[in-house]
């Protein structure tokens, strides 16, 4: 993106406004003696949430926080009795130094955002599913890493020719060409998205499944193949293959 954009009499370079995937974590207390985000900080008269988050992301930080003209970056939040405590979103209502139509925290209040990198081209999220050691939802390849995040798992699976990738228990990555479904033990069954809330081993602000919960991704052009196994681990499995796809290539899992 190029060019100059005028905001309330100020100018911001287009590169500063380049979109960065992010989400607001909320408004938190902050203290000059104990900062909520410790890693990198700067003060600028062009500060906005996007400018700050872009600056943090370019330096390898996952959190970005704004307090008027100040921008703070870190990979974790410091929480004490006086800092890092969630507070009302209205407390973070001070206009940004770079754009008075946007809010940038307040005195003793920091508005924090998290950076989430986009998925590799052609991949999309299917959702959170149950998983079991004896009947893995994705049964072809598995690895464990202290730097696991969804994108690294997807890259690992894609490089080996697999169409499905799933992250589980923070550090685990699974690959497959189909989702294996079992009712007892439960595996490959759609679960509430909130069940997949464990932080990734490679990023504290990204989630990677949970215990017995795997978050699955797939290539958008893939027609889903679901293999249904026996209802008990000791029984002889029966296999049914179902292919389902929706208009536009969006994947739909057959249950």
From TrEMBL:
Its main location: membrane. It is found in: Membrane. The keyword Ribonucleoprotein does not apply. Residues 21-116, 122-220 form the WSC domain. Residues 230-246 have a biased composition (Low complexity). It is a single-pass membrane protein. Residues 230-255 are annotated as: Disordered. GO terms for cellular component: plasma membrane. Pfam families: WSC. Keywords: Glycoprotein, Membrane, Signal, Transmembrane, Transmembrane helix. This is WSC domain-containing protein.
């Amino acid at each position: 993106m190029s060019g100059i954009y005028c905001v309330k009499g100020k100018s911001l370079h287009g590169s500063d406004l380049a979109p960065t995937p992010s989400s607001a974590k909320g408004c938190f207390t902050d203290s000059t003696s104990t900062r909520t985000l410790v890693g990198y900080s700067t003060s600028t008269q062009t500060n906005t949430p996007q400018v700050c988050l872009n600056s943090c992301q370019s330096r390898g930080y996952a959190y970005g926080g704004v307090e008027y003209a100040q921008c703070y970056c870190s990979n974790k939040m410091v929480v004490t009795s006086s800092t890092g405590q969630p507070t009302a979103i209205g407390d973070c209502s001070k206009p940004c130094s770079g754009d008075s139509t946007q809010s940038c925290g307040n005195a003793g209040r920091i508005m924090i955002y998290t950076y989430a990198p986009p998925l590799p081209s052609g991949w999309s999220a299917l959702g959170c599913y149950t998983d079991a050691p004896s009947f893995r939802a994705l049964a072809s390849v598995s690895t464990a890493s202290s730097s696991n995040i969804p994108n690294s798992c997807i890259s690992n699976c894609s490089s080996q020719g697999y169409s499905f990738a799933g992250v589980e228990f923070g550090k685990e990555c699974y690959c497959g060409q189909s989702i294996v479904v079992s009712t007892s033990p439960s595996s490959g069954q759609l679960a509430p998205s909130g069940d997949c809330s464990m932080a990734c081993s490679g990023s504290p602000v990204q989630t990677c499944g949970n215990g017995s919960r795997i978050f699955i991704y797939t290539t958008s052009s893939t027609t889903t193949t679901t293999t249904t196994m026996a209802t008990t681990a000791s029984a002889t499995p029966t296999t049914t293959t179902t292919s389902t796809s929706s208009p536009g290539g969006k994947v739909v899992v057959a249950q």
